[in-house]
Protein backbone atom coordinates (compact mmCIF):
# COMPACT_ATOMS: atom_id res chain seq x y z
CA UNK A 1 0.00 0.00 0.00
CA UNK A 2 1.44 3.38 -1.01
CA UNK A 3 -1.26 5.68 0.43
CA UNK A 4 -3.12 5.50 3.72
CA UNK A 5 -5.63 8.14 2.59
CA UNK A 6 -6.88 9.13 -0.85
CA UNK A 7 -9.52 11.77 -1.53
CA UNK A 8 -10.86 12.86 -4.91
CA UNK A 9 -13.26 15.79 -5.30
CA UNK A 10 -14.22 15.33 -1.66
CA UNK A 11 -16.84 17.65 -0.19
CA UNK A 12 -19.07 18.01 2.86
CA UNK A 13 -22.05 20.36 3.01
CA UNK A 14 -23.91 21.54 6.12
CA UNK A 15 -27.24 23.27 5.49
CA UNK A 16 -26.14 24.85 2.20
CA UNK A 17 -22.72 25.75 3.58
CA UNK A 18 -19.71 23.83 2.30
CA UNK A 19 -17.19 23.02 5.04
CA UNK A 20 -15.06 21.13 2.54
CA UNK A 21 -15.30 21.02 -1.23
CA UNK A 22 -13.33 19.70 -4.20
CA UNK A 23 -10.55 18.36 -1.98
CA UNK A 24 -8.12 15.99 -3.70
CA UNK A 25 -5.32 14.54 -1.60
CA UNK A 26 -3.00 11.55 -1.23
CA UNK A 27 -1.32 10.77 2.10
CA UNK A 28 1.61 8.34 1.84
CA UNK A 29 2.00 5.40 4.20
CA UNK A 30 4.75 5.28 6.79
CA UNK A 31 4.85 9.05 7.30
CA UNK A 32 4.04 11.45 10.10
CA UNK A 33 1.99 13.97 8.15
CA UNK A 34 1.39 17.52 9.37
CA UNK A 35 -1.92 18.95 8.17
CA UNK A 36 -1.92 22.75 8.50
CA UNK A 37 -4.09 25.58 7.27
CA UNK A 38 -6.10 28.58 8.47
CA UNK A 39 -9.25 28.26 10.55
CA UNK A 40 -12.13 27.20 8.35
CA UNK A 41 -9.91 25.51 5.77
CA UNK A 42 -11.69 22.19 6.31
CA UNK A 43 -9.03 20.31 8.31
CA UNK A 44 -11.33 18.89 11.01
CA UNK A 45 -14.04 18.07 8.47
CA UNK A 46 -11.50 16.16 6.37
CA UNK A 47 -10.31 14.17 9.39
CA UNK A 48 -13.87 13.43 10.54
CA UNK A 49 -14.59 12.08 7.06
CA UNK A 50 -11.40 10.02 7.22
CA UNK A 51 -12.38 8.27 10.45
CA UNK A 52 -15.98 7.68 9.40
CA UNK A 53 -17.69 10.18 11.72
CA UNK A 54 -19.07 12.02 8.68
CA UNK A 55 -20.15 10.92 5.23
CA UNK A 56 -19.20 12.88 2.12
CA UNK A 57 -21.72 15.06 0.32
CA UNK A 58 -19.72 14.62 -2.86
CA UNK A 59 -16.56 12.93 -4.09
CA UNK A 60 -14.95 9.93 -2.47
CA UNK A 61 -12.43 9.06 0.20
CA UNK A 62 -10.53 5.85 0.92
CA UNK A 63 -8.60 5.08 4.08
CA UNK A 64 -6.25 2.11 4.09
CA UNK A 65 -7.71 1.12 0.74
CA UNK A 66 -11.31 0.96 1.96
CA UNK A 67 -14.31 3.13 2.78
CA UNK A 68 -13.95 4.74 6.25
CA UNK A 69 -15.92 3.38 9.18
CA UNK A 70 -18.42 0.57 8.89
CA UNK A 71 -17.36 -2.75 10.40
CA UNK A 72 -15.46 -3.17 13.70
CA UNK A 73 -12.51 -4.44 11.67
CA UNK A 74 -12.33 -1.21 9.66
CA UNK A 75 -12.78 0.96 12.74
CA UNK A 76 -10.04 -0.96 14.54
CA UNK A 77 -7.49 -0.11 11.84
CA UNK A 78 -7.69 3.63 12.58
CA UNK A 79 -6.97 5.37 15.88
CA UNK A 80 -8.42 8.83 16.48
CA UNK A 81 -7.78 11.54 19.05
CA UNK A 82 -10.09 14.54 18.59
CA UNK A 83 -9.29 18.16 19.33
CA UNK A 84 -10.83 18.11 22.81
CA UNK A 85 -9.09 14.78 23.61
CA UNK A 86 -12.43 13.28 24.66
CA UNK A 87 -12.59 11.12 27.76
CA UNK A 88 -15.45 10.16 30.06
CA UNK A 89 -15.17 12.30 33.18
CA UNK A 90 -16.86 9.80 35.52
CA UNK A 91 -14.93 6.79 34.30
CA UNK A 92 -11.57 5.84 35.78
CA UNK A 93 -8.48 5.26 33.69
CA UNK A 94 -8.94 1.52 34.23
CA UNK A 95 -12.55 1.84 33.01
CA UNK A 96 -11.32 3.51 29.81
CA UNK A 97 -8.93 0.64 29.18
CA UNK A 98 -11.63 -1.97 29.80
CA UNK A 99 -13.94 -0.12 27.42
CA UNK A 100 -11.20 0.00 24.81
CA UNK A 101 -10.66 -3.75 25.14
CA UNK A 102 -14.39 -4.45 24.60
CA UNK A 103 -14.68 -2.22 21.54
CA UNK A 104 -11.47 -3.08 19.68
CA UNK A 105 -10.72 -6.58 18.37
CA UNK A 106 -6.95 -5.97 18.24
CA UNK A 107 -6.67 -4.29 21.64
CA UNK A 108 -3.22 -4.63 23.24
CA UNK A 109 -3.84 -4.69 27.00
CA UNK A 110 -0.13 -5.01 27.76
CA UNK A 111 0.70 -1.92 25.75
CA UNK A 112 -2.08 0.08 27.42
CA UNK A 113 -0.98 -0.96 30.93
CA UNK A 114 2.68 -0.22 30.14
CA UNK A 115 1.87 3.28 28.91
CA UNK A 116 -0.30 4.08 31.92
CA UNK A 117 2.46 2.92 34.26
CA UNK A 118 5.23 4.76 32.40
CA UNK A 119 3.22 7.99 32.39
CA UNK A 120 2.68 7.73 36.16
CA UNK A 121 -1.11 7.62 35.88
CA UNK A 122 -3.14 6.03 38.68
CA UNK A 123 -5.61 3.59 37.04
CA UNK A 124 -8.17 4.25 39.76
CA UNK A 125 -8.37 8.01 39.10
CA UNK A 126 -11.38 9.34 37.25
CA UNK A 127 -10.69 11.11 33.98
CA UNK A 128 -12.46 14.23 35.24
CA UNK A 129 -9.77 14.70 37.89
CA UNK A 130 -6.87 14.56 35.43
CA UNK A 131 -5.01 17.55 34.05
CA UNK A 132 -5.39 18.46 30.38
CA UNK A 133 -2.06 16.86 29.56
CA UNK A 134 -2.97 13.67 31.42
CA UNK A 135 -6.31 13.43 29.61
CA UNK A 136 -4.51 13.88 26.29
CA UNK A 137 -2.11 11.09 27.19
CA UNK A 138 -5.02 8.84 28.19
CA UNK A 139 -6.75 9.52 24.87
CA UNK A 140 -3.50 8.77 23.03
CA UNK A 141 -3.07 5.56 25.02
CA UNK A 142 -6.54 4.37 24.00
CA UNK A 143 -5.83 5.31 20.39
CA UNK A 144 -2.47 3.53 20.24
CA UNK A 145 -3.55 0.42 22.19
CA UNK A 146 -6.04 -0.33 19.40
CA UNK A 147 -2.93 -1.26 17.41
CA UNK A 148 -4.10 0.85 14.46
CA UNK A 149 -2.36 1.15 11.13
CA UNK A 150 -3.23 4.85 10.95
CA UNK A 151 -3.40 7.29 13.86
CA UNK A 152 -5.38 10.51 13.25
CA UNK A 153 -4.78 13.42 15.63
CA UNK A 154 -6.94 16.53 15.28
CA UNK A 155 -5.08 19.31 17.13
CA UNK A 156 -4.77 17.12 20.25
CA UNK A 157 -2.49 19.59 22.06
CA UNK A 158 -4.30 22.82 21.17
CA UNK A 159 -5.52 23.45 24.72
CA UNK A 160 -2.40 22.26 26.56
CA UNK A 161 0.23 24.41 28.23
CA UNK A 162 3.69 24.43 26.58
CA UNK A 163 5.18 21.82 28.93
CA UNK A 164 2.28 19.39 28.56
CA UNK A 165 2.33 19.91 24.79
CA UNK A 166 6.03 19.14 24.60
CA UNK A 167 5.64 16.00 26.71
CA UNK A 168 2.74 14.78 24.56
CA UNK A 169 4.65 15.32 21.31
CA UNK A 170 7.82 13.71 22.67
CA UNK A 171 5.80 10.67 23.69
CA UNK A 172 4.19 10.58 20.26
CA UNK A 173 7.60 10.70 18.56
CA UNK A 174 8.68 7.66 20.58
CA UNK A 175 5.46 5.75 19.90
CA UNK A 176 5.43 6.15 16.11
CA UNK A 177 8.66 4.28 15.22
CA UNK A 178 8.13 1.73 17.97
CA UNK A 179 4.78 0.60 16.55
CA UNK A 180 5.24 1.43 12.86
CA UNK A 181 2.31 3.84 12.68
CA UNK A 182 1.28 6.18 9.92
CA UNK A 183 0.09 9.45 11.48
CA UNK A 184 -1.91 12.46 10.33
CA UNK A 185 -1.48 15.34 12.78
CA UNK A 186 -3.58 18.46 12.34
CA UNK A 187 -2.12 21.51 14.05
CA UNK A 188 -2.17 25.29 13.80
CA UNK A 189 1.28 25.45 15.42
CA UNK A 190 4.01 25.08 12.81
CA UNK A 191 6.55 24.43 15.57
CA UNK A 192 4.67 21.24 16.49
CA UNK A 193 4.71 20.08 12.88
CA UNK A 194 8.41 20.89 12.58
CA UNK A 195 9.18 18.90 15.72
CA UNK A 196 7.21 15.78 14.86
CA UNK A 197 6.39 15.50 11.15
CA UNK A 198 8.30 14.49 8.03
CA UNK A 199 5.54 15.21 5.48
CA UNK A 200 3.47 18.39 5.06
CA UNK A 201 0.03 19.16 3.66
CA UNK A 202 -1.16 22.77 3.49
CA UNK A 203 -4.94 23.03 3.12
CA UNK A 204 -6.46 26.41 2.20
CA UNK A 205 -10.13 26.90 1.29
CA UNK A 206 -10.61 23.12 1.09
CA UNK A 207 -7.84 22.74 -1.48
CA UNK A 208 -4.35 21.34 -1.13
CA UNK A 209 -1.93 24.16 -1.90
CA UNK A 210 1.21 22.08 -1.44
CA UNK A 211 2.10 18.60 -0.19
CA UNK A 212 5.36 16.72 0.09
CA UNK A 213 8.19 15.58 2.30
CA UNK A 214 9.32 18.54 4.40
CA UNK A 215 13.02 18.16 3.54
CA UNK A 216 12.22 18.16 -0.18
CA UNK A 217 9.93 21.18 0.08
CA UNK A 218 12.50 23.23 1.99
CA UNK A 219 15.20 22.25 -0.50
CA UNK A 220 13.14 23.48 -3.47
CA UNK A 221 11.84 26.80 -2.08
CA UNK A 222 13.80 30.02 -1.54
CA UNK A 223 13.22 33.67 -0.80
CA UNK A 224 14.54 36.05 -3.47
CA UNK A 225 15.04 39.73 -2.68
CA UNK A 226 16.21 42.45 -5.05
CA UNK A 227 15.45 45.74 -6.75
CA UNK A 228 11.84 46.04 -7.90
CA UNK A 229 11.30 43.71 -10.82
CA UNK A 230 8.47 42.04 -12.69
CA UNK A 231 8.24 38.36 -11.65
CA UNK A 232 7.33 37.50 -15.25
CA UNK A 233 10.98 38.05 -16.16
CA UNK A 234 11.98 34.96 -14.18
CA UNK A 235 12.81 31.70 -15.97
CA UNK A 236 9.88 29.35 -16.52
CA UNK A 237 11.54 26.84 -14.18
CA UNK A 238 10.95 29.20 -11.23
CA UNK A 239 7.37 29.13 -9.96
CA UNK A 240 6.44 32.22 -7.94
CA UNK A 241 4.46 31.34 -4.82
CA UNK A 242 4.14 34.87 -3.43
CA UNK A 243 5.29 38.27 -4.67
CA UNK A 244 5.51 41.41 -2.57
CA UNK A 245 6.64 44.80 -3.83
CA UNK A 246 7.63 48.12 -2.33
CA UNK A 247 8.55 51.18 -4.33
CA UNK A 248 12.15 50.01 -4.63
CA UNK A 249 12.21 46.32 -3.72
CA UNK A 250 10.67 43.01 -4.74
CA UNK A 251 10.53 39.97 -2.44
CA UNK A 252 9.51 36.62 -3.88
CA UNK A 253 9.02 33.13 -2.53
CA UNK A 254 9.92 30.84 -5.39
CA UNK A 255 9.77 27.14 -6.03
CA UNK A 256 12.54 25.81 -8.24
CA UNK A 257 14.01 22.36 -8.79
CA UNK A 258 17.27 24.02 -9.85
CA UNK A 259 19.64 26.21 -7.85
CA UNK A 260 18.95 29.92 -8.30
CA UNK A 261 22.19 31.61 -9.45
CA UNK A 262 20.89 34.96 -10.74
CA UNK A 263 23.17 37.76 -9.36
CA UNK A 264 20.20 40.15 -9.53
CA UNK A 265 18.72 38.49 -6.47
CA UNK A 266 19.76 37.85 -2.89
CA UNK A 267 18.68 34.26 -2.28
CA UNK A 268 18.00 32.92 1.23
CA UNK A 269 16.49 29.64 2.47
CA UNK A 270 13.05 29.40 4.04
CA UNK A 271 12.07 28.10 7.43
CA UNK A 272 9.09 25.75 7.60
CA UNK A 273 6.99 28.60 8.98
CA UNK A 274 8.04 30.80 6.03
CA UNK A 275 6.97 28.05 3.64
CA UNK A 276 3.60 27.48 5.29
CA UNK A 277 2.79 31.19 5.46
CA UNK A 278 3.71 31.64 1.80
CA UNK A 279 1.17 29.03 0.73
CA UNK A 280 -1.44 30.44 3.11
CA UNK A 281 -0.97 33.97 1.75
CA UNK A 282 -4.01 35.89 0.46
CA UNK A 283 -4.49 35.71 -3.27
CA UNK A 284 -3.51 39.37 -3.74
CA UNK A 285 0.01 38.43 -2.66
CA UNK A 286 0.29 35.62 -5.17
CA UNK A 287 1.58 36.00 -8.69
CA UNK A 288 -1.32 34.73 -10.82
CA UNK A 289 0.40 34.95 -14.21
CA UNK A 290 0.36 31.73 -16.26
CA UNK A 291 3.11 29.38 -15.10
CA UNK A 292 3.69 25.63 -14.89
CA UNK A 293 1.08 23.88 -12.77
CA UNK A 294 2.09 23.13 -9.18
CA UNK A 295 1.99 19.39 -8.78
CA UNK A 296 1.15 17.81 -5.47
CA UNK A 297 4.06 15.69 -4.30
CA UNK A 298 3.29 12.01 -3.83
Automatic annotation (TrEMBL):
Keyword list, A-Z: ATP-binding, Nucleotide-binding, Transport
Pfam families: ABC_tran
Organism: Motilibacter rhizosphaerae
InterPro entries: AAA+_ATPase (IPR003593), ABC_transporter-like_ATP-bd (IPR003439), ABC_Transporter_VariousFunc (IPR051782), P-loop_NTPase (IPR027417)
Domain ABC transporter: 5-230
SUPFAM superfamilies cross-referenced by the UniProt entry: P-loop containing nucleoside triphosphate hydrolases
Protein name: ABC-2 type transport system ATP-binding protein
Gene Ontology molecular function, alphabetical: ATP binding; ATP hydrolysis activity
